[in-house]
């Protein structure tokens, strides 16, 4: 095992720094709020959301396929506002990342699956650019986790070797893919566990 202290910290956004942008709970809330058939909306979502997250559809095009394929008594803007309003931050986790970056001089970047409009909104709303150096989002690079290429792009952008990097994600599959490339990784369950594993890599506070 490589004992070098990592110089680069990669993070997922949804489920680590923020709530998920548009998960099943948010869609269930939307169905209740706007009196929609959740099962139908969810099926349409799964048929097209990968395309949206890959940056090949705009949010309005996604919504046209999933919600506005027929006349609705509410506007696209009403629905977009609801979607954006589901996002919340995890301030304690963000604070830990800021402290780690400052103490260890880390390059910090995101590797995330998310559509462009939600990504841009969340970066600005929660000032993620204040402490993150780059964002390798599926909508920007047209690859989605678990495709290995999105991790390789992140390594290239960071100009970092896998052995000098560490990756934090709340989904075990995505962590395993990163590990298969030689990136030390953490399945994020809570801040305490994540800090314990990072500490074993030398990233202590």
CATH architectural grouping of the largest domain? 3-Layer(aba) Sandwich
How many individual helices?
10
Structural class: alpha/beta
Widest β-sheet, arrangement of strands: 3-2-1-4-5
Structure commentary:
By secondary structure, the protein is α/β, with parallel strands linked by helices. It is 50% helix and 11% strand. It has helices spanning 24-34, 38-53, 59-66, 76-84, 91-104, 116-125, 138-141, 148-158, 172-180, 191-200; strands at 8-11, 107-112, 134-137, 165-169, 184-187. A 5-stranded parallel sheet has the order 3-2-1-4-5, with helices on both faces. The radius of gyration is 18 Å and the shape is elongated. It starts with 7 loop residues before the first strand and ends in a 5-residue tail after the last helix. The model has no long low-confidence stretch (mean pLDDT 97).
Question: What descriptors fit this protein?
Answer:
205 residues; alpha/beta; Rossmann fold; DNA polymerase, domain 1; 2 domains; 10 helices; 50% helix; 11% strand
Question: Short summary of the structure?
Answer:
50% of the residues lie in helices and 11% in strands. With 205 residues, the protein is an alpha/beta fold.
SSE layout and pairing:
Blueprint: E1 8-11, H1 24-34, H2 38-53, H3 59-66, H4 76-84, H5 91-104, E2 107-112, H6 116-125, E3 134-137, H7 138-141, H8 148-158, E4 165-169, H9 172-180, E5 184-187, H10 191-200
Parallel strand pairs: 1-2, 1-4, 2-3, 4-5
Helix pairs in contact: 2-3
């Amino acid at each position: 095992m490589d004992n070098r202290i990592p110089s680069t910290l990669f993070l997922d956004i949804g489920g680590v720094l923020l709530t998920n942008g548009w998960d099943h709970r948010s869609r269930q809330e939307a169905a209740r709020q706007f009196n929609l058939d959740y099962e139908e909306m969810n099926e349409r979502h799964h048929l097209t959301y990968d395309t949206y997250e890959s940056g090949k559809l705009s949010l309005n095009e996604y919504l046209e396929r999933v919600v506005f394929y027929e006349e609705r008594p509410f506007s696209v803007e009403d629905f977009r506002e609801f979607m954006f309003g589901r996002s919340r931050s995890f301030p304690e986790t963000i604070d830990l990342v800021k402290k780690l970056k400052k103490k260890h001089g880390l390059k910090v970047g995101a590797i995330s699956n998310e559509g462009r409009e939600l990504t841009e909104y969340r970066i600005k709303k929660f000032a993620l650019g204040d402490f993150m150096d780059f964002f390798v989002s599926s909508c920007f690079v047209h690859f989605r986790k678990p495709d290995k290429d999105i991790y390789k792009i992140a390594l290239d952008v960071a100009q970092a070797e896998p052995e000098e990097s560490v990756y934090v994600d709340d989904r075990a599959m995505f962590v395993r893919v990163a590990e298969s490339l030689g990136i030390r990784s953490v399945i994020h369950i809570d801040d305490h566990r994540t800090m314990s594993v990072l500490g074993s890599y030398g990233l202590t506070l």
